[in-house]
């Protein structure tokens, strides 16, 4: 087990590089932090780029990672540490929101919106190293009925591992307990080929901004309070299986092991729990005294796991499952 030190605050997103050598973290206003797992050294802080607190994505075959930045998409070369901001070809000022990478690394699906078009548009972008992003298609966000998703904003979370569809969470900000909170209401599935809406289902109240898909693309898991909702991807209109956590702490992050046999979950405590995806019982519990857990990730080969905390610390350990 190694402990990585980062800037103070929540580490809400983690990702491993394809070779499992690097771990990237974001959240809590830290921008982007990268560590070399083999030496436990941090690369340092990038300046000149305004990063948004959004997940980091590593390209599956090339030494590049990506993160949402102000008015563009940040591209970081992991062999040279050079960073730049990508824009749409011919549209340098265009907004790229909530990007999700295609599994083959050939591009992204993203969402854009403005005050004239609050529901916004979905876009698919083509990425080629060393060139601007290029638009493949763009469609207006629609629901199963004209008003079904009216006034809601979409948060693209992921492209399914098979690459054929992508998932979004829809919600709105509501004023509650003297602050504005994100209230997620719908889960939708769209075609990656043209953005067509394929499925829509309502989410339980208090659903968290966390979602995971199984490596075989058959299962989608969301969280609400201290429950996991296990959806059958082929028909998400059905009632999801409810898996209750074994404490009162709400889930903060989830991730499937690359084998698909386990789902790792963090709660508002010091533990990481592995759920057997056959029985949905807890198979193993890890306790790391670095703070309350906020994020979880597995290396692509499944040999390592990383968990981020509310103190800015990250722990990386060998997964023996």
Roughly how many Å apart are the termini? 15 Å
Kindly report the spatial arrangement of strands forming the biggest sheet: 1-28-27-26
Taking all Cα atoms into account, the compactness measure Rg is: 19 Å
Q: Tell me the number of helical segments per DSSP (H or I, 4 or more residues long).
A: 0
> Averaging pLDDT over every residue, what do you get?
90
Strand content: over 45%
Biggest sheet layout? 4 strands, antiparallel
Shape descriptor reads globular
What is the helix content? Answer: under 10%
Topology pattern, helix = H, strand = E:
EEEEEEEEEEEEEEEEEEEEEEEEEEEE
Low-confidence stretches: none
**DSSP E strands, number:** 28
What structural class do helix, strand and pairing data support?
A: mainly beta
Structural features, described:
- With 321 residues, this protein is mainly beta.
- The protein has strands at residues 2-4, 13-16, 22-26, 33-36, 41-42, 57-58, 64-69, 72-77, 83-86, 97-101, 107-112, 121-126, 134-140, 153-159, 165-176, 179-191, 197-202, 207-213, 219-224, 227-232, 241-244, 251-256, 262-267, 271-276, 282-287, 293-298, 304-309, 314-318.
- The two termini are 15 Å apart.
